[in-house]
Amino acid sequence: MIAASLNAIREALPSGVSLVAVSKFHPVERLMEAYHAGQRIFGENRPQELFAKVPLMPPDVQWHFIGHLQTNKLKLVLPYVTMVQSIDSLHLLDAVNRWCLDNGRVVDILLELHLGAEQTKHGLTEPEILGILAAAPMEGVRIRGLMGMATNTDDAAVVEADFERIQALFERIRTMELPGFDQLSIGMSNDWPLAVKHGATMVRIGTDIFGPREY
Ligand SMILES: *Cc1c(COP(=O)(O)O)cnc(C)c1O
User: Fold this and answer.
1) Which residue, 88, 140, 149, 206, could crosslink 112 as a Cys pair with Cβ 3.0–4.6 Å?
2) CA distance 129 to 170
3) Where are the alpha helices (DSSP H) in the chain?
4) Domains along the chain?
5) CA-to-CA dists, residue 177 to 13, 58, 171, angstroms
């Protein structure tokens, strides 16, 4: 089941779009099924759950943190992840950078653009993102691109408007030719084909791979 779902998604994704298997709320046995089907990038959104799963999975798994991260949980996350996709405040960005400097690590990050109006309070505004990129580079983090979650609705026009907005910002920043800034992480189970149409380089898919979340 998991292997078949993964293969169907991989066949539909254009080359150059990477797939993050969002494994939150699923037990490690199911993650291992995906691993044996060739999946290596896994996304988790809760620090404790990530921390518990890391030692149970093979060492070549690349973990992406995709949830709201509180600064008192950094040590559960930052030693183990290759990317934090959900940098959603200036305060968090500063704290992650400082933790990395103190601990001799450099972590790839994405800046999360606030999309989808009232549903989530997390995320950076466009001026905040442009301000971060205009400031002196931070030594503890590599800013690799943008992440966004579209409005949770069946109305494709609303979802597309969200994706258009983040794609336009991404393209605008790309003209600045910042080194390593090349990732646009948009698209989940219910909207990833639209995200691909709007330039996604990374999609984050849970339910379409693993089925409904278990706990
Ligand atoms: C849970 C989650 C996903 C995956 O959601 P599905 O609808 O199960 O594909 C993607 N991105 C983020 C940030 C999430 O929290």
Assistant:
1) 88
2) 10
3) 2-12, 28-36, 47-53, 74-77, 90-103, 126-134, 156-174, 192-197, 207-210
4) 2-210 (3.20.20.10)
5) 26, 36, 10
The pLDDT score that the predictor gives to residue 122 is: 87
**What is the Rg, in whole angstroms, of the alpha carbon atoms belonging to the chain?**
17
How many Å lie between the centroid of ligand 1 and the Cα of residue 38? 20
**Atom 13 of ligand 1, residue of closest alpha carbon:** 66
Is residue 120 within 8 A of residue 149, CB to CB? The reply is yes
- Atom 12 of ligand 1, residue of closest alpha carbon: 66
- The CA angle 188-192-198, to the nearest 5 degrees, is 125
CA-to-CA distance for 66 and 110, rounded, in angstroms? 10
What is the distance in A from the centroid of ligand 1 to the CA of 84?
14
Task: For residue 85, give the ligand 1 atom closest to its CA.
Answer: 13
Output the pTM of the full model: 0.97
pLDDT in tens, 43-81: 999 999 999 999 999 999 999 999 999 999 999 999 999
Residues contacting 121, CB < 8 A, separation 6+: none
| Ligand 1 site, residue 110, Cβ cutoff 6 A | no
d(CA 140, CA 106): 5
